[in-house]
Amino acid sequence: MAYTLTIARSSGPIPLSEWTSAASRIAHARIQTGNIEIVNPSTEERIRLMCGAGDLEVLTEHGWRAAIRFSHGAGTFNATDEIDSPSNPVRQVARALAKELDAVITGEEGEEYVW
Hints:
By secondary structure, this protein is α+β, with helices and mostly antiparallel strands. It contains two helices and nine strands, in the order E-H-E-E-E-E-E-E-H-E-E. 18% of the residues lie in helices and 35% in strands.
């Protein structure tokens, strides 16, 4: 199971309009506009995942990838092994979003990430 990091404010939920405005000012981030379709390599079953309002894609070396989900006034993303690298594009976008929104990045156990 993936470890989840959250971008949130202690003062309350981040409005969707503020989230999307902040995201529009961050290089290598964009609002996700379509649903995601993935294929199970074992069964070749196609699985469609609906994107939510405010979900973000991040530009990686492999192209645009769904990366940060927005729900209930906060953003969430998976802490992959690569998230510790300062050059990780998801980390860079998350850090920039937190700064733009006067928010903090926290882990599931309440620890704060100050990158």
